[in-house]
Input
Amino acid sequence: MNKRKIGEPIPPSSHWMEYDDLRVEYELVRCNRRSLEIQIKPGGRIVVRAPIRIRIQEIEALFEKKETWIKDKYREQCNVNVQPVREKTNQTKELEKRYRKAAVDYIPKRVAHFAQILGVTYEKITIRDTKTRWGSCSSSGNLSFSWRLMLAPFSVLDYVVVHELCHRIHMNHSREFWKTVEYYFPEYREKKNWLKEHGKFLVITDLNAAKAADGSKCEIEHSHSLI
Output
């Protein structure tokens, strides 16, 4: 494989961003700049200009932060009718609350388990309501995870935990980082691909909430049981 020469432009790459009611494709242009910029051009073409070494997670975080503006602008540029998200029922809210509580209890235990195996330390653990950014690790060792991982197979949740803890060894996504992930979690590719394919289904529907309220076994849309 030919290595890119210093100063040689990086070819643009295509990526996708998933919202509850909209899936958009964007072109990522890495260049010598310090800030992120999102442009939505006529026809709905989205271009993201970013610093060369920025992580995809940081770009996705900006997409989440600018969700309303992006949807409005995208709809304006290509006349896409973005349906408003339905208001959650009380049953759905209650079931989400149960999952959040379970995540606060369960995820830190998995972090402690794998941190001991990896021989790393960490600081604070925060459980968030994110839909595309499953976990993060700051340079100071603070970790955050989406409670929605509780809707995934637990092996997928474990992969995300190991992924973030490996950032305590390599604070990047270099070849050495992925080798470390593979060493401690050999099947990581399978779990990573599962999240990419099924992550958009990690939501609680009204039907799930109704089943849970009736005391029956609740199944999420991708057929994995709730715990």
About this structure: Confidence is low (pLDDT under 50) at residues 207-227. Strands lie at 13-18, 23-31, 37-40, 46-51, 125-128, 135-137, 143-146. Residues 90-118 form the longest helix (29 residues). The helical segments are 56-65, 67-78, 90-118, 154-166, 175-184, 188-198, 206-213.
